[in-house]
Amino acid sequence: MAQLIALLQANPKVGDIFGNVKLIERLAKLAAEKGAGMAITPELIISGYPPRDLLLQPDFVNQCYNAGKEINSQIPLLVGSPLPSEPRQRPGNGVIRCGNGEGGREVTRKQLLPTYDVFDELRYFSPDNRPGIVRSMSDLDFGVTICEDAWQHAGLVPSDYEVDPISQLAGWTGQGVILDATVNLSASPFHAEKGGDRVLVARCAAETLGHPFLLCNQVGGNDDLLFDGRSIVAWPDGTCVQAPAWCEGFLLVDLDEPNNCEWHCIENSDCINHGMCDLNRNDGNNEISATESSKEPLSSSDLLNAVSVGLRDYCKKTGLEHIVLGLSGGIDSAVAASVAVRALGPNRVTGLLMPSRYSSEHSVVDAKATAEALGCEWMEFPIETMHSAAETILALELENGDAVAAENIQARLRGLLVMGIANARGAMAIATGNKSELGQGFCTLYGDMAGGYAPLGDLWKTEVYAIAGAINLEYESQGRPLPINNSTLNKAPSAELAPNQRDDQTLPPYEILDEILRCYIEENLSESEIVLRGFTKEIVRSVLERLAKTEHKRWQMPPAPRVSRRAFGQGWRQPLAAKHNWRN
């Protein structure tokens, strides 16, 4: 029987050095019990990815490295860790060979350090100038690369680096260096179009190298970044075996026979797939080009899993055990509540119904129906008394002021209640706004934006509706009442801050708004290029002007799980005091 290699698809906690070491040891032990002769971890697993400015503390880097060298494992490991450098030099993003009584020693450091979108690795690391090679590891010889090192070769980076580590390895094999496989330790963040990209990266590398390529990816959520797992092995003929998404465990790889590969999910690992995990196998007959890979459609259920994992891990890793949110009877709060229940369970979610004089009767009915279908606690606090008192206090200002100021009082009173109850219970309030509203500033600072996390903050409104369908389908398959009823799905979106108010009185229809914003934010198209997509110049200009004028709100939004190619947050760095008369 061929030697089995385990890809440890793990969910580390940033900064928890010793907890992460225990996680590695536990996974390696389980893999060894299933017959693995060696194991590979994700990138920077000892520190957790991304460690951000923790890397500026030399003591943190040294502790990571020292802990990695002391890992106790009966099988040899390739482990991702920060590596110390000389004084006044940035550390390395590297790989340690350890376990099996070997002690620990450095293998290589990452060559290609991305500085685009959410990445800023040159701030923290110094690059290596060549990929690594390990000899006689469980009687096998490997090329060793780290995440981005493999992406240049597939043409999937925004701009080319000066070197291509995969081509370097291929050059060595052409000169007589014989390798059994090449491995890639990865912490590749999720976005909705990335699954096909990662398959292409693995296939391109395997085809060029002429031997199997094994990519071990991190899984789980760390702050706003999500990692879907989907660790992958590709063979030179295009055959691929891919681990499931959103699940912690290990992929056992037989280099000689793809059909012998096995996935093992960790018991009691909080798997969002509820145990429905399986390998994705491809025999190599499906050709994937770089263009096609980036257009691979993503199911609504996968998006639902993504935001659920983001919220779950944010709470789990910060020690928060309860969520409080406003329930308005609208689609956003119904979906946000459903995600919260999926993440923490119904007993750890409280919905607040806070009707005003402008709330319709069906809004209260629908909000109660959502809470009861989800099985979570709900409380009702009509805000009329508070609203009237605030109007009396501010009467002189409101009489001659902007009408929006009067409307926002209601949102801020609701924010006061949500935050007050969350604080009293030691819980976290979550904001329920979506990317479409945030992109237009169609939200209230210190009102509906109040909260510690925004699970829908990188979902377009049209995607929120799609996820609602996935939620209902999940409940329907279990024979349970639907948490998002037809009334909620079919009503015209409204903030209900004024009589007979509807979103489309201020904004274009969401199917138009979402596409204009997506073209500008995710594709970087100009105003004139967006018009050529079939939109009127007036609508495009009004959307982009509103986007620019409301940037201050997005600087103050809670973290949101990134599910798109470009999200508000680290990958969207816009000035506040700026003029936009250059746009055309």
Structure description:
35% of the residues lie in helices and 17% in strands. It has 584 residues and is an alpha/beta fold. Helix 6 crosses helix 13, helix 7 runs parallel beside helix 8 (361-374) and helix 7 (331-344) crosses helix 13 (461-477).
Q: How would you summarize what this structure contains?
A:
This protein is α/β, with parallel strands linked by helices and 584 residues long. It contains 18 helices and 20 strands. 35% of the residues lie in helices and 17% in strands.
Which short descriptors sum up this protein?
584 residues, alpha/beta, Nitrilase/N-carbamoyl-D-aminoacid amidohydrolase, Rossmann fold, seven-stranded mixed beta sheet, 18 helices, 20 strands, 17% strand
Spell out the blueprint of helices and strands.
Layout (H helix, E strand, L loop, with lengths): L3 E6 L7 H17 L2 E5 L17 H12 L7 E7 L8 E7 L5 E6 L22 E6 L2 E7 L18 H10 L6 E6 L8 H15 L3 E5 L1 E4 L2 E4 L3 E3 L5 E3 L6 E6 L7 E4 L14 E3 L7 H4 L6 H19 L4 E4 L4 H14 L4 E5 L7 H14 L2 E4 L3 H10 L1 H6 L2 H23 L2 E2 L5 H6 L20 H17 L8 H5 L19 H12 L5 H5 L5 H13 L1 H4 L30
Parallel strand pairs: 1-2, 2-3, 7-8, 8-9, 17-18, 17-20, 18-19
Antiparallel strand pairs: 1-14, 3-4, 4-5, 6-7, 9-12, 10-11, 12-13, 13-16, 14-15
CATH fold node name of the largest domain:
Nitrilase/N-carbamoyl-D-aminoacid amidohydrolase
Total number of beta strands: 20
The rounded Rg comes to 25 Å
Largest sheet: 7 strands, mixed
How much helicity do the residues have? 25-40%
Given helix and strand content, the structural type is alpha/beta
Strand arrangement, largest sheet?
Answer: 5-4-3-2-1-14-15
Low-confidence stretches: 287-295
Strand content: 15-25%
CATH superfamily of the largest domain: Carbon-nitrogen hydrolase
- The domain tally reads 2
In round numbers, the mean pLDDT is: 91
The CA-CA distance between the termini, in Å, is: 64 Å
How large is the count of helical segments?
A: 18
Name of the level-1 CATH class of the largest domain: Alpha Beta
- CATH architecture assignment of the largest domain: 4-Layer Sandwich
Shape: elongated
